[in-house]
Give the backbone structure.
Amino acid sequence: MIDKVWERIIKCEGEVFKQIRGKEFTYSVKGISVFLNATERSISKSEFANALKLVPLENTVPLHNFQAPSYLFAIVMDGRIRKNDW
């Protein structure tokens, strides 16, 4: 599933996403990492793969031990990324 989702993540590069509390951000993809514009943090493809094992998510709590959990949640739960898969 990660390869299909990763393609969607790449296609949405530069688009505006919203965190659960409404803060907007964009990201860029370089190699196997997503670099967030609102922070100096990045999220690796492997983090996304691990997060996909937990979807669907209602909040960021299950992602507490992940890199940038609120951003990760915003991306994986966005309709452009999840489509009808979860």
Observations:
- The mean pLDDT is 97.
